[in-house]
From TrEMBL:
It comes from Sulfurisoma sediminicola. PANTHER family: 4-AMINO-4-DEOXY-L-ARABINOSE-PHOSPHOUNDECAPRENOL FLIPPASE SUBUNIT ARNF-RELATED, SMR FAMILY PROTON-DEPENDENT DRUG EFFLUX TRANSPORTER SUGE. This is Small Multidrug Resistance (SMR) protein. It comes from the Bacteria. Signal peptide: none annotated. Its main location: membrane. One of its GO terms (biological process) is lipopolysaccharide biosynthetic process. It is found in: Cell membrane. It is a multi-pass membrane protein. The chain crosses the membrane at residues 52-71, 78-98, 104-121. Keywords: Cell inner membrane, Cell membrane, Lipid A biosynthesis, Lipid biosynthesis, Lipid metabolism, Lipopolysaccharide biosynthesis, Membrane, Transmembrane, Transmembrane helix. Residues 3-121 form the EamA domain. GO terms for molecular function: transmembrane transporter activity.
Length: 123
């Protein structure tokens, strides 16, 4: 895998992870909600106007463009497992940004992900 290919994959993965973090920030700002006929429009407008939600959706759009560029260079059987890096990034950043716990079980899972991505990347 070339440096450019790896960079595109990593950029796509990190943008996807950023999108999740922005969406979580947006839902934290909006608060818990249930969709009912009487609140679809107010909640929909609140979500649509939230800058974090907009940022998350923007990250998704850009990540798709970058991902398409990556897939034009790398076999999908190698590129797709790299998305797992996003789990690691999100677990660590969710700990710092949202105070989410990183348990021993999560650390073991993260270790498996890192080893798995390393094995796939060497193929």
């Amino acid at each position: 895998m070339t440096v450019v290919s790896f960079s595109l994959i990593l950029a796509g993965v990190l943008l996807n992870a950023a999108a999740q973090l922005f969406l979580k920030s947006g839902t934290n700002a909006v608060g818990h909600f249930d969709f009912h006929l009487d609140n679809v429009v107010p909640i929909g407008l609140k979500i649509a106007a939230n800058p974090y939600i907009i940022g998350g959706l923007t990250c998704y759009v850009v990540s798709v463009v970058i991902w398409i560029m990556a897939l034009s260079r790398v076999p999908v059987s190698i590129a797709y497992p790299m998305l797992s890096i996003g789990y690691v990034v999100n677990a660590v950043l969710a700990y710092y940004l949202f105070g989410e716990a990183i348990t021993a079980q999560k650390l073991v899972g993260i270790g498996f992900i890192i080893v798995g991505v390393w094995i796939v990347a060497r193929a």
